[in-house]
Design goal:
Number of strands: 2
Strand content: 5-15%
Helix content: 40-55%
Shape: elongated
Order of helices and strands: HEEH
Radius of gyration: 15 Å
Distance between the termini: 11 Å
Length: about 60
Amino acid sequence: MFKKKFKEYRGNPAADLMGSIPDQTDRNGSMKTGTEIWLEIFKKEKDKLKKDYNLLEIDLLK
């Protein structure tokens, strides 16, 4: 179970947020859709995961 969730998270760290972010207005008054906000979050989280050098050896966990 943990291995499956871990691999899913590494593939798409923002999957749980999809469809749950409403359209919003930012500080400048421009409108952003929930999908645009989700894509920004996805890209930031994916970049964080790329920089993660302390990746668990998932096969060693028992």
